Amino acid sequence: MTSSAAASIIPITLTVNDRTGLTLYAPPWEDEDGEEWQGFLGDGAKILLYPSTAELAAFVASGEENDLSDHPAWGQVLRSTPDDLRPGSEDHYDLDQVYEWASGEPDPVHVSALADVVDMVARIADCCDDGALRRLVEGTPEYADLVDEDVSYQGRDGRKRWNELGDVIAESWERAIARVDSWLRWEGDFSSSEFDEGELLWERVGAEPVKIVLPDAVYYTVRAELPIDAEAEEFEVAFLGADDNVAVFTEVGDLARFCRTAKTHRLVKLEWWSELADEPDDEAFAPAEDAVYDLRKPSEDGADLVRELADFCDLDADTDVLDEPDIDRDDWRDLVAEIETCLVQQD
Question: How many Å apart are CA 23 and CA 39, to the nearest integer?
Answer without folding.
Answer: 11
